[in-house]
Amino acid sequence: MMARAWSAFISGERRALSHPQIELSQPSHSASPVIEVGKKIYLKRPVAVRILESSMNQLDPSHPFARAPGRSYQELLDEDTRHKIPDALRFQNPVDLGVEPVRAERYHSPDFFRKEVDKVFLKTWQYAVHEDELPNVGDTYVFDLLHKTVLITRQEDGSLKAMQNVCLHRGRKLVTHGGCKRQFRCPFHGMEWNIDGTFKWNPIGWDFPQIAEKEFSLPEVRLESWMGFVFINFDPNATPFADLVGVLPDHMEHWKLRDCYKGAHVGKIVRANWKVVAEAFMEGYHVYATHPQANPFIAVEQGQYDLITDHVSRFTTAVGIPTELLEEKDMSEERRIELMLGAGSRANKPFTKESQPQLAAEETTRTHMAERGRRMLQEQTGRDFSEACDADILDGISYHIFPNFHIWGAFPQKICYRMRPIDPDTTLWEAMMIRIAPKDGPRPAPGVFRMLKEDEPWSTVIDELGYLATLYDQDMGNMQPCQDGLKALGDGVVQFAHYSETALRNLHRMIDKYINDEI
């Protein structure tokens, strides 16, 4: 049912909506589905009746989705009159993906998982390693995904090359650990390959008359590097990575991603489907119940949800103002700041007596904490952030690159997540902290990967991840129970929100497009 519903959505004549990289379809016999209001384009009638007809009464020319009470995120940005708001934050592209339910079996069915492996993970760009981790000739990283294993190696000319990590003699995994290599030597029988993958030596070459050594190279895997992030793809015919991500590079240029390094990298096995883990970080309103300590200073209602392309979604969450659901309505700004400092944030140090808030006239929690963040970043990096707007410093700005990689914007440390599926009920979840390097002096060495034991809480790596470590323990508390519940539903359905879970809907839409060979 779900596949047919999405198939109805993505069939027919294709039309661009709001951005040339975003394509939505309309039945070829229908009238134009959009109306223009200034420079914006909004849906006027259903793109696919089965998907959208139940939500048409909620559309509004000023905002095409149901909207929570209070300010919109763009109206909140307008209040920052001292700083220029960057184009990255002014970008808006809400896309209506309807209210169709999602079948629970997509999260636990072995058959569906096999389709995802074959049609999604082996045909999409997968983040593997950061270039900083391979600075010297011969430096090699072993990237494992499902039943695939890849060598990524720095070449003599400074380029990177990805190759299958399999001995072509008896199929043994050629390299089990990364490091600086002069050649790749199989521990089983001693056959060797050069770091560019060409065949080097066979100790009993006389007994392999069938092998033409010039044709016995390790098979190459496609590789593209984007702002230091190295992606690989097992599909030789895949669309180039850069052609799939739209204006994402422009956004990240603003937030100095090229000047960043990987400060920490921690992983943990989660007993849940990879989509359960990914979807835990694709909307902001879970903060209200999962992270209640943040309710005094995170306004979940004022989030904004956009599609940048079919392959990239984004949500933003306003920080420094309370949720409308907060029971303590008369909390002072000073108390709110104390709570925010006590809980920690990406832009501020933990609360101490010396950091007691001293608010100037007309100053708010948001403006006060943003200014603190600017000063802290300048102290840490030697860079000038005086022109950065409050949102640049405080807000959660999360991008999801299909299918399983997340990267945050803004100037403080950028959070990255990678979800590597293991089986329908098991995922390797990795969290990385990407930090702006100091303006002067050597670039810091990348953080070393640390793998947590299954019974080891995230709070044990608070030195590496800061306040986020305790939040991840709260997030973990949802994941296996979600998987258990989805399996209990069997072939039942779950219901996503119309607007604030746009990214989740798009994830499933894109999975079906890949499975149905429509990409």
From TrEMBL:
<feature type="domain" description="Rieske">
    <location>
        <begin position="126"/>
        <end position="232"/>
    </location>
</feature>
<dbReference type="InterPro" id="IPR036922">
    <property type="entry name" value="Rieske_2Fe-2S_sf"/>
</dbReference>
<protein>
    <submittedName>
        <fullName>(2Fe-2S)-binding protein</fullName>
    </submittedName>
</protein>
<dbReference type="InterPro" id="IPR017941">
    <property type="entry name" value="Rieske_2Fe-2S"/>
</dbReference>
<dbReference type="GO" id="GO:0016491">
    <property type="term" value="F:oxidoreductase activity"/>
</dbReference>
<dbReference type="Pfam" id="PF00848">
    <property type="entry name" value="Ring_hydroxyl_A"/>
</dbReference>
<dbReference type="Pfam" id="PF00355">
    <property type="entry name" value="Rieske"/>
</dbReference>
<keyword id="KW-0408">Iron</keyword>
<keyword id="KW-0479">Metal-binding</keyword>
<keyword id="KW-0560">Oxidoreductase</keyword>
<dbReference type="InterPro" id="IPR001663">
    <property type="entry name" value="Rng_hydr_dOase-A"/>
</dbReference>
<keyword id="KW-0411">Iron-sulfur</keyword>
<keyword id="KW-0001">2Fe-2S</keyword>
<dbReference type="GO" id="GO:0051537">
    <property type="term" value="F:2 iron, 2 sulfur cluster binding"/>
</dbReference>
<dbReference type="GO" id="GO:0005506">
    <property type="term" value="F:iron ion binding"/>
</dbReference>
<dbReference type="InterPro" id="IPR015879">
    <property type="entry name" value="Ring_hydroxy_dOase_asu_C_dom"/>
</dbReference>
